[in-house]
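Exercise: predict the structure of this protein bound to NAI.
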Amino acid sequence: MRIAIFSTKVYDRTFLERANRERGHDLTFLEPKLDLVTARLAEAFPAVCVFVNDVLDAAVLERLRAGGTRIVALRAAGYNNVDLDAAARLGLTVLRVPAYSPHGVAEFSVGLLLALDRRIPRAWSRVRENNFALDGLLGHDLWGKTIGIIGTGRIGALVARAFRLGFGCTVLAHDFRPDPNLVAMGVVYTSVDDLVARADVISLHCPLTPQTRHVIDAAAIERAKPGFLLVNTSRGALIDAEAVIVGLKSGKIGGVALDVYEQEADLFFEDLSDEIIQDDVFQRLLTFPNVLVTGHQAFFTEEALTAIAETTLTALTEEEAGRISPNRVSAAIVAPPPASAETR
Ligand code: NAI
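Solution:
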């Protein structure tokens, strides 16, 4: 199948070409991000392959459909950037990679928390300047602390397990599909409000949906424990970044580690070291000594990139052969069950 691959980086090309050796698709690698202007590059391609910050709103999908595209394959798990209703209306099939090494993301989340609380980046930059003083590097034991995990799917469950069994933490969780295996190991499911009020660390692992957008907002920060730490490797818009800045300035928030940011589409995955960044909220976040930001790299492991490339191309092979890939996303399967009304 002819596939137009948007937002291509060197590593995408490496892993997709490797995975394509036995599959024989006709891959065209395109550097631009997909949007209304670049959609015309997909003219006459039956399939496009996209990433997390490509724009797949109704207008872009209509343009793709008019150009003959039938399949949109996300080389990602999250699909919040796709207008699924429009895709369904236009008869476009949307594929994703539901599970690619959730371990990499989970491990990175734990690593970010440790780096934030134990000030590892700060310590490393000091040591490089022969400054071996410890003032300003004081952290906490995780043992015995309460970790609140919102979203206990593939990634969140691994994070819960690591904190519960590995670090001996009390783990509170919120999800409208409680995981009995986690309950068996002592994880306690509760409401978002209760979790936020009791957690020393809040770690976000739910998808971005209308219900979860800004789940950590000014009201949640107000309810939270003074000095709590916040980790987000899921999607930027789960957090109201301006409210977080207010919480950091007042000292209510003890620290924030982010791998994702609501407006990251204008920033991440590019080298902007010679540019003037126009996003004042992002720039302000970077000024706090207790904020750690990485550029959406939690997924970035050898194992995950291999799995993403293989799963994406396998799903396209199946669809090309007229079979329905299990990796299809549809508006029907992503709608939360009615009980989610309690979910903030
Ligand atoms: P998953 O689909 O296995 O799990 C998501 C969980 O969130 C499910 O258990 C679901 O029931 C729960 N959930 C959905 N709506 C909720 C709500 N309103 N309140 C509470 N829980 C809710 O997804 P997975 O693989 O664990 O990924 C989680 C998220 O991590 C993805 O949606 C994606 O946004 C993000 N991600 C980030 C990566 C990175 O590189 N930073 C890489 C991969 C995923």
